[in-house]
Amino acid sequence: xxxxxxxxxxxxxxxxxxxxxxxxxxxxxxxxxxxxxxxxxxxxxxxxxxxxxxxxxxxxxxxxxxxxxxxxxxxxxxxxxxxxxxxxxxxxxxxxxxxxxxxxxxxxxxxxxxxxxxxxxxxxxxxxxxxxxxxxxxxxxxxxxxxxxxxxxxxxxxxxxxxxxxxxxxxxxxxxxxxxxxxxxxxxxxxxxxxxxxxxxxxxxxxxxxxxxxxxxxxxxxxxxxxxxxxxxxxxxxxxxxxxxxxxxxxxxxx
Length: 255
What we know:
- The protein has a single domain, classed as 3-Layer(aba) Sandwich (Rossmann fold), CATH 3.40.50.150.
- The longest helix has 26 residues.
- The protein is about 40% helix and about 20% strand.
- By secondary structure, it is of the alpha/beta class.
- It is globular, with a radius of gyration of 18 Å.
């Protein structure tokens, strides 16, 4: 019975994520990915993705190196970092729960130069990839939007399943709030009250629902337990220099 309830809840959460991110992608597929740095310049948008790759992926795979191996980009959006991964790996499997995001990604990467990147939708909790196919699994600013820790765990289990023995996973996680006092109050409001408060203050309601706000931050013991359950060896947890201290981290793991 418990397992059936969990499957139902995961399916409900996945559908909610799909609807929420399709709505955001229909309005602006770039703003809701680069909320604070999107300025209407596509070249700058992809430069930001390249900058992230140089900062945190290149130390793991120092250039110059041949573009070998298969990479996973989970929650790829319109391909902000998929393009950077395509320069570093022989193939990239890029997935997003939003069909609208994937349609935008395909349109932006129709050039043959990006033929090694495959964009496709997934259901938000599973991956249509066979076991042991991926050499490097990557997800950035995606888990922070997942509505529950159970959805995060389901996605991490899938990363563990598709990663090859000896492969690496680099997972971006939320570990704190930028305004903790505010969130300490907001977390007790029901969903309808929170949405109303956002509307009354003139803020974007598409950034208020739980598929954008995400679940509460993870503690270090919760991160360790989640990776252990996914049968991934947690090698390191380090702060993301692109976010305020204490709010985001990268978890590096191997299989």
